[in-house]
Design goal:
This protein is an alpha+beta fold. Helices cover about 35% and strands about 30% of the residues. The chain is elongated and about 60 Å long.
Amino acid sequence: MFAVILANLEGANYTNIALWLLALFIFIGIMDVRTTKVVLDADQLEIISNFRWETVPRIELVRVASEKGAPTALEIRGVA
């Protein structure tokens, strides 16, 4: 894939290079969103993504707020 991109960049101007980089970042972002998941078990909350894996014990969760059009907010005990 990168060989095709590099072959197409031969003689390219800055606009073409910027558009290729933008397309690459969009692709990486879409893949990150598509592979992210949240699992609520009986004793913990797991947030799994390509670049991170976080586990929060259920006892640490104080409140969860979700509103239309906004991401879910977690209030975790001891985190400002």
